Amino acid sequence: MRARSFAYTRPLTLEEALGEVADPSAKLLAGGQSLLPLMKLRLASPEKIVDLGRIEAMRGIRREGSRIRVGALTAHATLAGNPFLEDALPLLARTAREIGDMQVRNRGTLGGSLAHGDPSADLPAATLALEAEVEVRTADGTETIPIDDFFLGPMLTAVPSGGILTSVTFAVPPTGSRSAYAKVPHPASGYAVVGVAVVLHLAPEGTIDHARIGVTGLAETAYRARGAEESLVGKVPSEELFRAAAEEAVGEGSPVGDIYASAGYRSRLAKVTLRRTLLGLV
Q1: pTM here?
Q2: Helix (H) or strand (E) holding 279
Protein backbone atom coordinates (compact mmCIF):
# COMPACT_ATOMS: atom_id res chain seq x y z
CA MET A 1 0.00 0.00 0.00
CA ARG A 2 1.19 3.51 -0.79
CA ALA A 3 0.97 6.59 1.39
CA ARG A 4 -1.50 9.28 0.42
CA SER A 5 -0.03 12.36 -1.25
CA PHE A 6 1.35 15.11 0.98
CA ALA A 7 3.26 18.38 0.88
CA TYR A 8 6.95 18.20 1.84
CA THR A 9 9.35 20.77 3.27
CA ARG A 10 12.91 20.46 4.57
CA PRO A 11 13.90 23.49 6.70
CA LEU A 12 17.55 24.33 7.38
CA THR A 13 17.08 25.89 10.83
CA LEU A 14 15.03 25.22 13.94
CA GLU A 15 13.33 28.59 13.55
CA GLU A 16 12.17 27.67 10.04
CA ALA A 17 10.93 24.32 11.31
CA LEU A 18 8.93 25.97 14.10
CA GLY A 19 7.25 28.15 11.49
CA GLU A 20 6.35 25.12 9.38
CA VAL A 21 5.03 23.01 12.27
CA ALA A 22 2.72 25.83 13.35
CA ASP A 23 0.48 24.47 10.58
CA PRO A 24 -1.83 21.97 12.41
CA SER A 25 -1.83 19.69 9.35
CA ALA A 26 1.96 19.24 9.55
CA LYS A 27 3.78 16.20 10.91
CA LEU A 28 7.47 16.15 11.90
CA LEU A 29 9.83 13.65 10.30
CA ALA A 30 13.03 12.71 12.14
CA GLY A 31 14.44 9.32 11.09
CA GLY A 32 11.14 8.12 9.65
CA GLN A 33 11.36 4.61 11.13
CA SER A 34 7.96 4.94 12.82
CA LEU A 35 6.10 7.52 10.73
CA LEU A 36 6.78 6.16 7.26
CA PRO A 37 5.48 2.63 7.93
CA LEU A 38 2.33 4.14 9.45
CA MET A 39 1.87 6.29 6.36
CA LYS A 40 2.34 3.33 4.02
CA LEU A 41 -0.34 1.44 5.94
CA ARG A 42 -2.49 4.61 5.91
CA LEU A 43 -2.72 4.55 9.69
CA ALA A 44 -1.35 8.09 9.48
CA SER A 45 -2.08 10.45 6.59
CA PRO A 46 -0.55 13.87 7.31
CA GLU A 47 -1.17 16.60 4.76
CA LYS A 48 2.32 18.04 5.24
CA ILE A 49 5.68 16.55 6.24
CA VAL A 50 8.34 18.73 7.87
CA ASP A 51 11.66 16.90 7.49
CA LEU A 52 14.10 17.90 10.26
CA GLY A 53 17.05 16.07 8.73
CA ARG A 54 19.06 19.15 7.70
CA ILE A 55 19.05 20.85 11.11
CA GLU A 56 22.59 20.06 12.28
CA ALA A 57 22.09 21.95 15.56
CA MET A 58 19.83 19.09 16.68
CA ARG A 59 22.66 16.53 16.48
CA GLY A 60 25.62 15.80 18.70
CA ILE A 61 26.68 14.66 22.16
CA ARG A 62 28.38 16.87 24.75
CA ARG A 63 28.86 17.20 28.49
CA GLU A 64 27.31 20.16 30.30
CA GLY A 65 28.36 20.19 33.95
CA SER A 66 26.91 17.16 35.70
CA ARG A 67 24.68 16.20 32.75
CA ILE A 68 25.17 15.02 29.18
CA ARG A 69 23.17 16.58 26.34
CA VAL A 70 22.27 14.56 23.26
CA GLY A 71 20.68 16.20 20.23
CA ALA A 72 17.28 14.83 19.25
CA LEU A 73 18.44 13.94 15.72
CA THR A 74 21.35 11.84 16.97
CA ALA A 75 20.96 8.41 15.39
CA HIS A 76 20.72 5.19 17.37
CA ALA A 77 23.90 3.97 15.63
CA THR A 78 25.76 7.03 16.89
CA LEU A 79 24.56 6.39 20.45
CA ALA A 80 25.59 2.75 20.15
CA GLY A 81 29.10 3.45 18.85
CA ASN A 82 30.16 6.67 20.58
CA PRO A 83 33.24 6.08 22.82
CA PHE A 84 32.47 9.04 25.10
CA LEU A 85 28.93 7.81 25.64
CA GLU A 86 30.09 4.25 26.23
CA ASP A 87 32.27 5.57 29.05
CA ALA A 88 29.90 8.15 30.57
CA LEU A 89 26.45 6.60 29.90
CA PRO A 90 27.04 2.95 28.98
CA LEU A 91 23.37 2.13 29.62
CA LEU A 92 22.27 4.47 26.81
CA ALA A 93 24.84 3.08 24.38
CA ARG A 94 23.95 -0.53 25.20
CA THR A 95 20.23 0.10 24.89
CA ALA A 96 20.73 1.69 21.48
CA ARG A 97 22.49 -1.46 20.32
CA GLU A 98 19.33 -3.45 21.09
CA ILE A 99 17.12 -1.38 18.76
CA GLY A 100 15.86 -3.00 15.57
CA ASP A 101 18.47 -3.86 12.95
CA MET A 102 21.38 -1.98 11.38
CA GLN A 103 19.18 -0.10 8.93
CA VAL A 104 16.83 1.08 11.69
CA ARG A 105 19.73 2.12 13.92
CA ASN A 106 21.32 4.11 11.12
CA ARG A 107 18.13 6.08 10.38
CA GLY A 108 16.19 6.13 13.65
CA THR A 109 16.86 8.94 16.15
CA LEU A 110 16.71 9.45 19.89
CA GLY A 111 14.19 12.28 19.67
CA GLY A 112 12.05 10.52 17.10
CA SER A 113 11.78 7.42 19.28
CA LEU A 114 10.84 9.35 22.41
CA ALA A 115 8.38 11.67 20.64
CA HIS A 116 6.65 8.68 19.03
CA GLY A 117 5.82 7.37 22.51
CA ASP A 118 5.62 3.67 21.69
CA PRO A 119 5.00 1.83 24.99
CA SER A 120 7.22 -1.06 23.86
CA ALA A 121 10.21 0.97 22.62
CA ASP A 122 13.65 0.39 24.13
CA LEU A 123 14.94 3.92 24.78
CA PRO A 124 12.18 5.05 27.18
CA ALA A 125 13.34 2.54 29.79
CA ALA A 126 16.93 3.79 29.62
CA THR A 127 15.94 7.47 29.69
CA LEU A 128 13.87 6.84 32.82
CA ALA A 129 16.72 5.01 34.57
CA LEU A 130 19.08 7.84 33.62
CA GLU A 131 16.73 10.58 34.91
CA ALA A 132 16.52 12.30 31.55
CA GLU A 133 15.06 15.73 30.90
CA VAL A 134 13.56 16.52 27.51
CA GLU A 135 13.99 19.97 25.97
CA VAL A 136 11.13 21.16 23.76
CA ARG A 137 11.09 24.33 21.67
CA THR A 138 7.91 26.16 20.74
CA ALA A 139 7.25 29.57 19.24
CA ASP A 140 6.99 30.87 22.82
CA GLY A 141 10.39 29.60 23.98
CA THR A 142 12.03 26.52 25.52
CA GLU A 143 10.47 24.11 28.00
CA THR A 144 12.25 21.36 29.95
CA ILE A 145 10.15 18.31 30.78
CA PRO A 146 11.32 15.63 33.25
CA ILE A 147 11.12 12.22 31.58
CA ASP A 148 8.84 10.99 34.39
CA ASP A 149 6.21 13.45 33.12
CA PHE A 150 6.83 12.92 29.41
CA PHE A 151 5.00 9.70 28.50
CA LEU A 152 1.26 10.30 28.86
CA GLY A 153 -0.21 7.25 27.14
CA PRO A 154 0.28 4.93 24.15
CA MET A 155 1.78 7.08 21.37
CA LEU A 156 1.05 10.17 23.48
CA THR A 157 3.71 12.46 24.96
CA ALA A 158 3.97 15.88 26.56
CA VAL A 159 5.34 17.57 23.41
CA PRO A 160 2.79 20.36 22.80
CA SER A 161 1.16 21.07 19.47
CA GLY A 162 3.58 23.16 17.42
CA GLY A 163 6.53 22.04 19.57
CA ILE A 164 9.75 20.29 18.57
CA LEU A 165 11.77 17.98 20.80
CA THR A 166 15.28 19.38 20.32
CA SER A 167 17.52 17.56 22.81
CA VAL A 168 17.66 15.28 25.84
CA THR A 169 19.92 15.64 28.87
CA PHE A 170 20.92 12.78 31.15
CA ALA A 171 22.15 12.58 34.73
CA VAL A 172 25.57 10.93 34.99
CA PRO A 173 25.30 7.99 37.44
CA PRO A 174 27.72 7.82 40.39
CA THR A 175 31.25 6.73 39.52
CA GLY A 176 31.50 2.96 39.62
CA SER A 177 27.82 2.36 38.87
CA ARG A 178 26.78 -0.82 37.10
CA SER A 179 24.02 -0.78 34.50
CA ALA A 180 22.21 -3.03 32.05
CA TYR A 181 19.28 -3.13 29.66
CA ALA A 182 17.53 -6.47 29.09
CA LYS A 183 14.43 -7.27 27.09
CA VAL A 184 12.38 -10.15 25.81
CA PRO A 185 12.01 -9.15 22.15
CA HIS A 186 9.06 -9.98 19.99
CA PRO A 187 10.50 -12.41 17.42
CA ALA A 188 9.05 -10.58 14.41
CA SER A 189 9.37 -6.88 15.27
CA GLY A 190 12.20 -6.87 17.82
CA TYR A 191 10.15 -4.56 20.06
CA ALA A 192 10.19 -5.33 23.76
CA VAL A 193 7.45 -7.61 24.98
CA VAL A 194 8.96 -6.41 28.25
CA GLY A 195 12.24 -4.61 28.88
CA VAL A 196 14.06 -3.27 31.95
CA ALA A 197 16.86 -0.73 32.33
CA VAL A 198 18.76 -0.73 35.62
CA VAL A 199 21.46 1.42 37.21
CA LEU A 200 22.97 0.23 40.52
CA HIS A 201 25.77 1.56 42.71
CA LEU A 202 27.18 -0.25 45.73
CA ALA A 203 28.62 1.54 48.75
CA PRO A 204 32.06 0.43 50.03
CA GLU A 205 30.40 -1.67 52.74
CA GLY A 206 28.47 -3.60 50.07
CA THR A 207 24.98 -2.11 50.42
CA ILE A 208 23.08 -0.55 47.53
CA ASP A 209 23.15 3.25 47.76
CA HIS A 210 21.81 4.16 44.29
CA ALA A 211 19.15 2.32 42.28
CA ARG A 212 17.22 3.38 39.19
CA ILE A 213 14.81 1.14 37.26
CA GLY A 214 12.94 1.85 34.01
CA VAL A 215 10.33 -0.57 32.65
CA THR A 216 8.99 -0.75 29.10
CA GLY A 217 6.52 -3.00 27.30
CA LEU A 218 4.57 -3.94 30.41
CA ALA A 219 2.05 -1.10 30.73
CA GLU A 220 0.44 1.56 28.54
CA THR A 221 3.57 3.68 28.93
CA ALA A 222 7.12 3.09 30.02
CA TYR A 223 7.55 3.99 33.69
CA ARG A 224 10.09 4.35 36.46
CA ALA A 225 9.71 1.86 39.33
CA ARG A 226 10.41 4.21 42.22
CA GLY A 227 9.00 1.93 44.89
CA ALA A 228 11.28 -0.90 43.80
CA GLU A 229 14.23 1.48 43.79
CA GLU A 230 13.51 2.57 47.34
CA SER A 231 13.18 -1.05 48.47
CA LEU A 232 16.76 -1.71 47.32
CA VAL A 233 18.58 1.26 48.83
CA GLY A 234 20.44 0.51 52.03
CA LYS A 235 20.16 -3.26 51.56
CA VAL A 236 22.75 -5.94 50.87
CA PRO A 237 22.15 -7.54 47.45
CA SER A 238 20.55 -10.97 47.54
CA GLU A 239 18.27 -13.09 45.37
CA GLU A 240 15.43 -12.68 47.86
CA LEU A 241 15.83 -8.89 47.86
CA PHE A 242 15.81 -8.76 44.07
CA ARG A 243 12.82 -11.08 43.81
CA ALA A 244 10.83 -8.78 46.11
CA ALA A 245 11.99 -5.69 44.20
CA ALA A 246 10.84 -7.27 40.91
CA GLU A 247 7.42 -7.95 42.42
CA GLU A 248 7.27 -4.33 43.58
CA ALA A 249 8.31 -2.97 40.20
CA VAL A 250 5.63 -4.90 38.32
CA GLY A 251 3.03 -3.87 40.90
CA GLU A 252 3.78 -0.22 40.20
CA GLY A 253 2.57 -0.56 36.61
CA SER A 254 -0.75 -1.62 35.17
CA PRO A 255 0.13 -4.59 32.94
CA VAL A 256 -1.70 -4.74 29.63
CA GLY A 257 -2.35 -7.61 27.27
CA ASP A 258 -2.62 -7.72 23.49
CA ILE A 259 -2.46 -10.24 20.65
CA TYR A 260 1.23 -10.88 21.41
CA ALA A 261 1.14 -11.46 25.18
CA SER A 262 -1.44 -11.43 27.95
CA ALA A 263 -1.12 -9.09 30.92
CA GLY A 264 -0.34 -12.05 33.19
CA TYR A 265 2.36 -13.37 30.88
CA ARG A 266 3.94 -9.94 30.59
CA SER A 267 3.94 -9.59 34.37
CA ARG A 268 5.75 -12.89 34.83
CA LEU A 269 8.25 -12.03 32.11
CA ALA A 270 8.96 -8.65 33.70
CA LYS A 271 9.54 -10.15 37.14
CA VAL A 272 11.95 -12.76 35.84
CA THR A 273 13.77 -10.33 33.55
CA LEU A 274 14.25 -7.70 36.25
CA ARG A 275 15.34 -10.22 38.89
CA ARG A 276 17.93 -11.74 36.55
CA THR A 277 19.16 -8.32 35.47
CA LEU A 278 19.65 -7.19 39.07
CA LEU A 279 21.49 -10.40 39.91
CA GLY A 280 23.75 -9.92 36.91
CA LEU A 281 24.89 -6.52 38.20
CA VAL A 282 26.25 -7.70 41.56
Answers
A1: 0.94
A2: helix 263-280
